[in-house]
Amino acid sequence: MINAAIGLGANLGDPKKQVLEAMQRIANHDGITQLEASRLYVTEPVGPIQDQPVFINAAMTIQTRLSARELFDILKALEQAMGRSVSAVRFGPRVIDCDILLFGDDCVQELTLTIPHACLEERAFVLYPLREIANDWCLPDGRSIALLASLCDPQGVDVLEEEVVCE
User: Fold this and answer.
1) What is the pLDDT of residues 66-124, one digit of tens each?
2) Which of 67, 46, 68 is nearest to 55 (CA)?
3) What pLDDT does 65 receive?
4) With the CA atoms of 29, 135, 94 and 109 taken in that order, what torsion angle do they form, in degrees rounded to the nearest 10?
5) Which DSSP symbol is given to 45?
């Protein structure tokens, strides 16, 4: 069994409901056992498209007997089943986004799959939820999630305190 971390986010429709539903679907999938799930976080958009609703983000840790590619394919199928368009704009609004952040000590560099997830070490919206549940986990290069999160500016990343519905 491999320990893996998954990041989730949404900012269209009812993002809180969609992130929680995606976590449940992942946890219920054959070959996957959920270890822990973070709280939900409200985060500001990051990247070139700033004119969009805030995101709800979370992280979960799992154990799996699946390969990284099999897990990736399951996550992409889940996104489509939940209404995410295959042609969704990169960094744009989305119904759901599920990314493999870490997969054991594996490093994967393929056209459609990069592990550890690209720019993980720069993204507070990923690191803060991940630190909550995998503080002592490390990237394959030895840097800990705790260290990386401590180096990220927390501005625009807050624990969800109330109901947030985005359009």
Assistant:
1) 999 999 999 999 999 998 776 666 767 889 999 999 999 999 999 889 999 988 998 99
2) 46
3) 96
4) -80
5) -
Bridge partners of 37, per DSSP, are 60
Per DSSP, what are the bridge partners of residue 4? 62, 103
Burial of 6 (0-12, 13-18, 19+ CB in 10 A): buried
Structure tokens at 32: 């996957």
- Point out the residues that are catalytic: 84, 94, 97, 99
Q: What is the DSSP letter of 60?
A: E
Domains of the chain (ranges; CATH) run: 2-159 (3.30.70.560)
pTM to 2 decimal places: 0.92
Half-sphere exposure of 71 toward its Cβ, with a 13 Å CA cutoff?
31
Q: Give the tokens for residue 147.
A: 């260290």
